[in-house]
Write a structure and sequence with these properties.
29% of the residues lie in helices and 37% in strands. It has 320 residues and is an alpha+beta fold. The chain has a single domain, classed as Anthranilate synthase, CATH 3.60.120. The protein has a 17-stranded antiparallel beta sheet that branches. Helix 2 crosses helix 6.
């Protein structure tokens, strides 16, 4: 028996391998394909070997949060943001659906639908089975040339809504944070783009791109500084993470952690969003929304529903 690995770097050929995921001491020890949890306490690297790929599923212990319960938690979350003077914090939830889809077919459909996303399907007896298609670059590097992005704010693609001060300030917090972290490593030739609107499947986001020079020895140091970004934790980061740990109803596990490839010549490291944990009979979608003091909890619920469509739309296409 061996662990399963399928992944597709944006606009490249899909890679499939069998082997073993092994836990390492820290994100600084990551090499080749790796995946980490939200707080980077559990980091696994993949080593290929000759074995038979076998899917493993964790024991099903997750409870779905109802809309009523989410609204109640969201109001408490918002109250804590205001009383503790936090700029931003991210509240996530889990949405459960019945599993009626072949996993490799699901993976291939995600690769086809989302050409600019990092798509993966992994399975191990250590952490179970996960699948996702994430648009959020943490660091992409070719030799010494690298880039990252500030991605925040969400609206449905098919709506006529314009960006409000809430989404604009949310994205500005992330941009400022990245500027500060890049300055800590004295990187060369840092260039920052204008603010743009980008589409990621059924939703659109605000994005600012950064390009810079970096040595391969500094890539994982920068990853550790950047992650968890305010887009998945909040600001100030320590206060936001504490609030998340106190009020979220589930363990995020790999949701909003890091996933990707780290080699001598290239780095393709992404924040693990638009992802799901797969069980024998259920699929658990992990969905987050960025709260600021101006948030409306019902709108945050709607944002998580819109993000769910990234995976649900593909599942519906397969089933039909």
């Amino acid at each position: 028996m061996g662990d399963v690995l399928h992944y597709r770097v944006p606009n490249q050929t899909s890679i499939s391998s069998c082997g073993k995921f092994t836990k390492v001491n820290s994100i600084l020890d990551a090499t080749g394909f790796f995946v980490s949890d939200f707080e980077k306490k559990n980091v696994f690297v993949f080593e290929s070997s000759e074995s038979t790929p076998t899917f493993c599923y964790s024991e099903f212990l997750i409870e779905e949060q109802s809309k009523e319960n989410y609204i109640k938690t969201g109001e408490e979350f918002l109250s804590e943001i205001r009383s503790n003077n936090l700029d931003k914090a991210i509240l996530s939830r889990v949405k459960l659906i019945d599993r009626n889809v072949d996993l490799f077919q699901f993976y291939e459909a995600l690769c086809t639908r989302y050409e600019s996303a990092f798509v993966y399907l992994i399975s191990s007896e250590v952490f179970g089975t996960w699948i996702g298609a994430t648009p959020e670059v943490l660091i992409r590097r070719e030799k010494n040339n690298a880039r990252t992005m500030s991605l925040a704010g969400t609206l449905p693609v098919n709506s006529n809504e314009v960006w409000s001060s809430k989404e604009l300030s949310e994205q500005a917090f992330v941009t400022k944070f990245i500027q500060e972290q890049l300055s800590k490593l004295n990187l060369g030739n840092i260039e920052e783009s204008e603010l743009n609107t980008v589409t990621a499947g059924p939703v659109r986001h605000l994005r600012t791109d950064f390009e810079f020079n970096i040595s391969k020895n500094n890539v994982l140091k920068l990853a550790s500084l950047l992650h968890p970004t305010p887009a998945v934790s909040g600001l100030p980061r320590a206060g936001a993470v504490s609030l998340i740990n106190n009020l979220e109803k589930h363990n995020r596990q790999f949701y909003s952690g890091l996933i990707g490839i780290q080699n001598a010549k290239n780095s393709d490291i992404f924040v693990n969003l638009r992802c799901a944990q797969v069980f024998d009979t259920k699929i658990a979608l992990y969905l987050g929304g960025g709260y600021t003091k101006d948030s409306l909890v019902h709108k945050e619920w709607a944002e998580t529903e819109a993000k769910a469509a990234t995976l649900l739309d593909v599942i519906k296409d397969i089933e039909n």
